[in-house]
C-alpha cells in the first residue's frame, strides 16, 4: 500500500481511496450513522419526494418501501422504516 486518502463529502459518508504500490486504486465508501438529518445534503430531496408520494395517496408502508428502493435510509438503518414516514424531522438520508 502506498497511501490511503480519506474524505468526508457529507457528514454521513466517509470515502477512502487506497493507492497500491502498483498504482492500482481501490475506492471505498462507508455510510456512517448520524444524529441530525439537517446534516444530509439530499434531505430536501427526500422531503419533497415523500410529500409528493403522500399527496398521490400512497400509504406509509408503500412510501417506505419505495424510498428504500430508491436509495434513501434512516439515520441509523439501511432502509426507511414505516414509522419514520411522515415525520420529515431529519431522520432520513439518501445513499450515494
Structure in a nutshell:
The protein has 96 residues and is of the alpha+beta class.
Can you walk through the features of this model?
- The protein has 96 residues and is an alpha+beta fold.
- It has one domain.
- Helix content is 24%, strand content 29%.
- It has 2 helices and 5 strands.
- The protein has helices at 43-55, 60-69, and strands spanning 3-10, 13-19, 25-31, 72-74, 92-94.
- It starts with a strand and ends with a strand.
- The model is unreliable at 89-96 (pLDDT under 50).
Mean pLDDT: 82
* Shape category: elongated
Contiguous low-pLDDT stretches (5 residues minimum) are 89-96
SS field, number of helical segments = 2
Question: In total, how many beta strands?
Answer: 5
Strand residues, percent: 25-35%
Encode the helix/strand succession as letters.
EEEHHEE
Question: What are the SSEs and their pairings?
Answer:
Blueprint: E1 3-10, E2 13-19, E3 25-31, H1 43-55, H2 60-69, E4 72-74, E5 92-94
Antiparallel strand pairs: 1-2, 2-3, 4-5
What key phrases describe this protein's structure?
96 residues; alpha+beta; three-stranded antiparallel sheet; 5 strands; 29% strand
Amino acid at each position: 500500500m502506498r497511501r490511503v486518502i480519506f474524505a468526508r463529502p457529507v457528514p454521513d459518508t466517509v470515502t477512502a481511496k487506497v493507492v497500491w504500490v502498483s498504482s492500482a486504486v481501490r475506492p471505498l465508501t462507508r455510510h456512517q450513522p448520524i444524529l441530525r438529518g439537517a446534516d444530509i445534503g439530499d434531505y430536501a430531496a427526500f422531503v419533497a419526494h415523500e410529500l409528493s408520494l403522500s399527496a398521490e395517496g400512497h400509504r406509509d408502508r408503500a412510501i417506505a418501501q419505495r424510498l428504500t428502493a430508491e436509495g434513501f435510509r434512516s439515520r441509523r438503518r439501511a432502509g426507511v422504516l414505516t414509522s419514520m414516514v411522515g415525520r420529515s424531522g431529519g431522520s432520513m438520508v439518501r445513499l450515494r
